[in-house]
Design a protein that fits this description.
about 260 residues; alpha/beta; Rossmann fold; five-stranded mixed β-sheet; three-stranded parallel β-sheet; 7 helices; about 35% helix; Dienelactone hydrolase domain-containing protein; Dienelactn_hydro; hydrolase activity
Length: about 260
């Protein structure tokens, strides 16, 4: 697998600011003997849950604004964004060198070694205790690959997965996916239409969705996003609306079967 050049070379925006609407809490279940925090946001009476997987920069103001706004969209979701990295996001000195970026991801963001699934399921259980009855996944960049891996597991509790500016997403990495996906590409990602077309042969209750933002760079909804830029902010709000509509549609389709 390889990252886009933009993912390797583009740093996080340093001047981003946002007053968090949610709060950090500790997950009830320890993972690998360690306590884990998560960022919780959204209306606490919602029965629809979203687990969010941040990008390689970890918690950043733009990402947390993205979480807050998604959680309030389309009737509201309880959104939990666990801390997968423990030691913070990728150091700036790794950027510009693809081998260093991939090495850091291999050390801190490996699906099995870093217990991505276990952390995610711990977050699900807490949302379940908080009243959620349906669950979807949203990721950014590396996080979208993690969502694809999670919904490739047998017996996954999730109804859908995906997210904006996905890295590593291909026919190969999505061949075992068991839910529909939403993929919102920037100008820097490869053509994802074949992936979505293949997913739509699987006969899921809701079709997978794809939209390309050819005027946006990789990472515009996450750590690399500068939402003081009117064009980026407008595109981010559009992405959030598309995501919220998709997750609401999936939840409604699940409710109709109950």
């Amino acid at each position: 697998m390889s990252l886009t050049a933009a993912c390797c070379n583009t740093p996080a925006v340093e001047n981003a600011q946002w007053d968090n609407k949610g709060e950090f809490v500790t997950l009830s279940t320890e993972v690998d003997g360690q306590k884990r925090k998560t960022y919780l946001t959204g209306p606490k009476d919602s029965k629809r849950g979203i687990i969010a997987v941040y990008d390689i920069f970890g918690y950043r103001p733009t990402s947390q604004q993205f979480f807050d706004r998604l959680a309030e969209s389309h009737g509201g979701f309880q959104l939990s964004a666990p801390d997968y990295f423990l030691e913070g996001g990728i150091p700036p000195e790794c950027l510009g060198d693809s081998s260093k970026v991939m090495g850091w991801i291999g050390q801190h963001g490996d699906y099995k070694k870093n217990h991505i699934l276990e952390v995610t399921l711990a977050a699900v259980e807490d949302l379940r205790k908080a009243g959620c009855t349906s669950f979807s996944l949203v990721g950014q960049c590396w996080g979208v690959l993690m969502t694809a891996k999670i919904v490739s597991e047998e017996g996954t509790p999730f109804l859908s997965a995906g997210g904006p500016h996905p890295s590593f997403i291909s026919l190969e990495t999505t061949k075992d996916v068991k839910t529909p996906m939403i993929l919102l590409a920037s100008k820097d990602e490869a053509d994802l239409v074949p992936v979505v077309e293949h997913l739509n042969t699987k006969g899921f209750p809701v079709e997978s969705f794809h939209q390309r933002f050819d005027n946006m760079h990789h990472g515009w909804t996450g750590g690399r996003g500068d939402w003081t830029n009117a064009e980026q902010f407008k595109a981010a709000l559009e992405a959030i609306d598309l995501l919220g509509a998709f997750y609401a549609k999936v939840a409604a389709a699940n409710d109709s079967k109950l």
